Amino acid sequence: MPLLPRWFETLSFQAEIILLAVAFDPIGFAAGYLLAPEFGLEPIAGGAYGLVAASVPVSMFVMREASR
Questions:
Q1: Which 8-state DSSP code applies to residue 36?
Q2: pLDDT averages per 10-residue partition of the chain, 68 residues
Q3: Potential cystine with 54: which of 24, 26, 38, 66 (Cβ 3.0-4.6 Å)?
C-alpha cells in the first residue's frame, strides 16, 4: 500500500513540495502557538518552533525523493 495517494504521486515534484508546505506549515504554527504557553514560552516563539517542526515531514519527503 503506497504511503501517499495516487493523485499526489502524479503531481510534479515542485507541486508536491508546495502542497505539503501548505498543509503542514499552518498546522505546525498553530500547534506551536497554542502549546507554547504550556512550556513557558511566548506564543510567537512557539509558532516559530512549530514551523521548524512542521518542516520535518517535508524534509523527509525530499530525502525520500532524492534516494529514488
A1: G
A2: 77 92 95 96 96 94 90
A3: 24
